[in-house]
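sorry for the late reply, my laptop died twice this morning and i had to redo everyting from scratch. anyway the thing you sent over, i finally got around to it. pasting the sequence first so we're on the same page, its 147 residues, then the predicted structure underneath. double check i copied it right bc i was rushing
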Amino acid sequence: MTQQMIKSVAAEAPSRVTIFWRSGKHTAVDLAEYFDSPGYEKLRVPAFFVSVTVEEWGHGIEWGDGEIGIDADTLYRLGKEQTGLAYPVTDFNLWMERNGLSLSAAAKALGITRRTITYYHGGYKPIPVYIKLACIGWETLRLQNAA
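ok and here's the structure:
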């Protein structure tokens, strides 16, 4: 995946940003999940939230001269997840945990590389919907074989 580059950003309180990519596309992202994360509490203040700017070179967005920021790849992934075009990282990680899978075991179960699992597990890349379907299928077969 190539590095996502941001051209501009517009914020709408209380928690929504629209990212305008250099590719000409745009993505709406709800950032409410960040509001309770350590270091991001100031985003709850509407006047502060709408003061968002694009980081130098377009690699992310920031508030308060870089005091708080979110990188472009994370925003891209969140946008995909929130529109249903990607499997949420939290759901993927719960699948691994529920089935007692290490990174290597998950890679073997899905027939993909451990490196790809590492990217998915850490939220570094959007997880394609077909991986969600593979996880559901793998777990269903496992439960059927156990019965």
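Residues 41 and 111 are 40 Å apart (CA to CA).
thats about all i looked at so far, will dig more tmrw
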